[in-house]
Amino acid sequence: MVKSLITVATSVAFAYDDEGLSLLQMRTRTIQDPKYTLQPVNTLCADDEVITFAQCVEAQKKNLIESTHQDWSIIYNKRGEARYPQGCYKNLGNGQIYYNDEPIGVTNPTRSPICSKEGGRAAEIAAGLAGNCVNADCSLPAGEPYQILTWGPNLVVPDLEIRGFGAVCDACGLLSYGECSKAGDMGLIEEAVGAKSQLKMSPSASINGAGHDFPTRPSGCTVRANGYVEFNPYDTVDGALAGLVSDSGVSVGFNIVRPVCAVCTTTTTPPPAPPPAVDEPEDDESSAVGDPHLTTNNGKHFDLS
What we know:
By secondary structure, this protein is an alpha+beta fold. It has 5 helices and 12 strands. The strands form 3 sheets. The protein has a 5-stranded mixed sheet with strand order 1-5-3-4-2, with helices on one face. A 5-stranded mixed sheet has the order 6-10-8-9-7, covered by helices on one side. Strand 8 and strand 9 (about 230) form a beta hairpin.
């Protein structure tokens, strides 16, 4: 009997140990497999682990990857020109996070790629929602001051309106980062504000206004008087993962930038159609039901009341 009790107790102990080990392994995996990982320099993310602009914003603003950014700061955009990794990376020289929206990248001895098992950039590229480099290796074309991407038709830029300094877009008119970038590369913003070479470069990401307060500039795509295009992810699809939402839903105006907005399309419901006309019967006294008089066949009338 004693031996039997010892066996049962031992079995229970092993079962408890196995369960405890399983929980420990799960906790270890959680710690070892964060959403975003910083890879060593001179490496690249696997194609399916390259992250999107929105994911890069999340990694930086939620401090999921340590950086030297201040609260009022956000990732910097820097096209690689065959010098930097594709997608999101950290510059070990200054400790800050950058985003390269070119479709390919190269290893760099001072840049560490930021990768994720949930990376979504490959899907964007496969769907035709990303720009392409003029040169196959994404090197800067000879004589060009900036890397200008070419775009296919899959990412549709809506009709644009450029509002005044200090204004904001309507919520329905906020562009995405991709739309803002394509509009700049294709010269669509130039058409509205005048030809300026600074428009043809990736939009600078910025969330702060004067005095480093934030968000104190319009949400979405904006252009400065000197022609530089900028992008504030607040209230846009690109800021959703990081929880970047302003009180107004469009942030506030800033007197040195003009919002670049989509023209909102409004649909109006037509008034209901009137009911179909019904022919009224002609006045026929002889056919009236309950009529208190009688008409004879020679037209004489007799009051029956």
